[in-house]
Design goal:
This protein has about 475 residues and is of the alpha/beta class. About 35% of the residues lie in helices and about 20% in strands. It starts with a helix and ends in a 26-residue tail after the last strand.
């Protein structure tokens, strides 16, 4: 399926070289090689369990020295959260009987939001219609970016959005009179919200007496990907006949992550946020992950700075290797091997005990080492699925990343991406057919495949995502008396 000169010229205007376009077409046609899991990571074998004394030591280390950056992918729309509620709304009798709906409508954040907007309380069907309908007929919640969706209610402020709650947690993680940066990704359409977001940041940072620099970016259009028609495998084209481009998934945000400042960058999804009165149980673990990452970076930098064959190198090999072993990934105490590990970006990722939540998990992968693996990356043969299903932990996306070399320059993160872990799937084309589509390797999966990785167990109480609107009914999100 050759690209025409007109195709190549059009793609070049979008920042996509012809060689990259041909590579994508090959991946779409041939598919991706499956991963081969060796075993699930467990406590002592890929995952470390910190004592509270150890955790507090790492908290103190972080508080004492580091500049912190925060990276929050937030370009997703809230619309996907409402799919289940929309289905129920088409059946008013079923809607009125559904216990999930009743519980949702009784939550403080829904009650206060409806009241503040002046919508009368006149039954479940009408209340749901008010949530779903566009402004001014309703609150228009599905039309909001997820960052701006009301998540919690409190006594001090009627409602708080996911973005506001993230800011409270970030400011408390920074600490009084400390300075940090927040990099949030939005869709290109949402970039016009910059002034509004800056005002919110200023208000909340002032309340916490800290200094927070806001960075906002959108996914680069050059990370968009091509698609094939499922019927005949030809290159999918738009109405003008040009190659059809689609967003390349959150793995496209690797460049955005690299633009985040700080000695260590704390990464978290916009919807995984506790109400402010519960954030005290989360913050020490975020700081501990940062402390472990900083010590790994420090020990790795000492090794890289030592002269090969010197006593300093021998001492650095021992210190770096012992630290890795203590953190659940023993490595051969060989200078060349450990230098190879040290000369790369690193991440310390929190892992939560598996209670059946969907998402990726920590595994040892044949030929690739310690990795976060999505279920869709695992082949369907019984042996591999058994390893997958017996995993003890999953990835809540709570991680601390060090992105810089010893001289302070940024690693070229693309160099450490595992291109073989892209995703190929089928999606509706909007006209009754199907497309074969390509997503870049996931941001914390294949896009960090070549990083030095350490996993730390964190308590399940630190994880509170909102993937559907019904998740706002979780008991942990409801304001206690006095809040």
């Amino acid at each position: 399926m050759p690209l025409s000169p007109a195709d190549e010229s059009w793609l070049a205007q979008h920042g996509i070289p012809a060689a990259e376009a041909r590579r994508q077409i090959t991946l779409l046609k041939d598919g991706m090689p499956p991963l081969h899991l060796s075993r699930a990571a467990r406590i002592g074998d890929g995952i470390v369990r910190l004592t509270l004394l150890e955790r507090d030591h790492w908290v103190h280390q972080t508080r004492g020295s580091a500049s912190l950056g925060f990276f929050v992918p937030a370009s997703g729309a809230a619309s996907r959260m409402f799919a289940g509620l929309r289905k129920l709304a088409d059946h008013p009798e079923e809607l009125a009987r559904d216990p999930k709906v009743r519980t949702l409508l009784e939550t403080a954040v829904v009650r206060r939001s409806l009241k503040a907007a002046g919508f009368p309380v006149v039954g479940a069907a009408n209340e749901v219609r008010a949530l779903l309908s566009p402004v001014p007929e309703g609150l228009g919640w599905p039309d909001l970016p997820k960052a701006f969706l009301p998540f919690h209610a409190s006594g001090k402020q009627d409602v708080r959005t996911a973005f506001e709650e993230q800011l409270h947690e970030i400011c408390d993680t920074l600490g009084t009179r400390r300075r940090g940066s927040l990099h949030i990704t939005l869709s290109s359409e949402q970039l016009q919200e910059r002034a509004r977001l800056q005002a919110i940041v200023n208000r909340i940072a002032h309340e916490h007496e800290c200094f927070l620099e806001l960075e906002i970016s959108a996914q680069d259009p050059s990370t968009d990907t091509l698609a094939l028609t499922s019927l005949d495998g030809d290159l999918a084209r738009d109405a003008q006949g040009f190659p059809r481009l689609r967003a390349g998934g959150h793995g496209s945000l690797l460049a955005n992550l690299s633009a985040t400042t700080g000695d260590v960058v704390l990464v978290k999804n916009i919807d995984n946020i506790q109400p402010r009165w519960r954030q005290g149980g989360v913050i020490p673990w975020r700081l501990a992950l940062a402390g472990v990452a900083l010590e790994l970076r420090h020990q790795g930098d000492l090794l890289l700075a030592s002269h090969p064959g010197s006593p300093d190198e021998a001492e650095a090999v021992k210190s770096f290797g012992n630290l890795l072993a203590h953190l659940g990934r023993p490595e051969p105490l060989e200078a060349v091997h450990l230098r190879h590990l040290a000369a790369r970006p690193l991440r310390v990722a929190g892992m939560v005990r598996n209670d059946g939540a969907p998402g990726g998990g920590p595994f040892w992968v044949e030929g690739k080492g310690l990795q976060i693996v999505e279920q869709s990356e695992v082949p369907s043969d019984p042996e591999q699925r058994a390893i997958l299903e017996n995993a003890t932990h999953f990835n809540p996306v709570e991680m601390a990343c060090c992105l810089r070399r010893p001289d302070g320059s940024l690693h070229e993160l693309e160099t450490f991406r595992d291109a073989s872990r892209a995703f190929v799937s089928e999606k509706p084309d909007g006209a009754g057919g199907m497309l074969k589509v390509l997503e870049h390797p996931g941001l914390w999966n294949g896009s960090m495949g070549g990083w030095l990785t350490v996993f730390v167990e964190i308590p399940p109480e630190t994880f509170l995502p909102a993937k559907t609107i019904f998740d706002l009914s979780h008991p942990w999100r409801q304001p206690p008396e006095g809040n």
